[in-house]
Structures are given as C-alpha cells and as structure tokens.
Specification:
The protein contains no helices and eleven strands. Strands 2, 4, 5, 6, 9, 10 and 11 form a seven-stranded mixed sheet that branches. Strands 1-3-8-7 form a four-stranded antiparallel sheet, with no helix packed on it. Helices cover 0% and strands 48% of the residues.
Length: 130
C-alpha cells in the first residue's frame, strides 16, 4: 500500500507563505499525476494544483499565480509553495496521486478532479488569519 504523508501546514497571517511537502513511499516517477487538494467542512474537496509526469502543471483561477506545485523525484516528494495566502485558503490540504500507466495530459479541469486520483494522504491543516 503506497503511503503519502503531508507536512508543513500551520497558521499564518494573510499575505504570508507556507510550503507543504508530501513524502511518497514509492517512486514519484511512477505517478502519472500528483496533486494537492483542499477541503473545508461541509464542502467538496477542491483541487488546487496538479502536475503531470511530463511536467505540465495546472491550477484553478483561485490560486493561480499564488501557488506553485513541484516535485523532487530524487526525494520522492511533492511540494506546494503557497504565497500571498488569504483567509479563504484556510482548509485541510491533501496530497494525492494517480499512478501509471502513463497517458497524455488530460487538461483542466479534468486533471484537478478528485475522482481520477487513487491514493491520498491524511492531510495537513492550513489556517490563514486576517
């Protein structure tokens, strides 16, 4: 069973930054997509960043130009750099992966849909105060 373990969450003031990490127990080179999602109680899980094995990345408009996803295959770790954080970014953040076989980039919004991901971490809380 592949494990994904998030870290790096915490509390920050609006305008601040956080970097989330997601350590994978298997090779991240075998992931067709890896992504970050967030969820607040009572709402559906929302995709905030995705990265295709070929390097293509995608973001929803709500975080574009503020969040950056990256992957270090040597460390089997996924990252999410979050800058200029806003109170509405407060949520539990989850790392997710869709493993191979590989295929081409499916585009947005499909690559940010939770249903295509098969492995999930336990989440890390991010709280942004105004």
């Amino acid at each position: 069973q592949v494990q994904l373990v998030e870290s790096g969450g915490g509390s920050v003031q609006a305008g601040g930054s956080l970097r989330l990490s997601c350590a994978s127990s298997t090779y991240t080179t075998t992931a067709m997509y890896m992504g970050w999602f967030r969820q607040v109680p009572g709402k559906a899980r929302e995709g905030v960043a995705t990265i295709h094995f070929g390097g293509t990345t995608g973001y929803p408009d709500s975080v574009k130009d503020r969040f950056t996803i990256s992957k270090d295959n040597a460390k089997n770790t996924l990252y999410l750099q979050m800058d200029n954080l806003k109170p509405e970014d407060t949520a539990m953040y989850y790392c997710a992966a869709k493993w191979g076989p590989f295929s081409g980039w499916v585009g947005l919004p499909r690559a940010l849909e939770a249903g295509i991901y098969s492995n999930w971490g336990q989440g890390t809380q991010v709280t942004v105060s105004s």
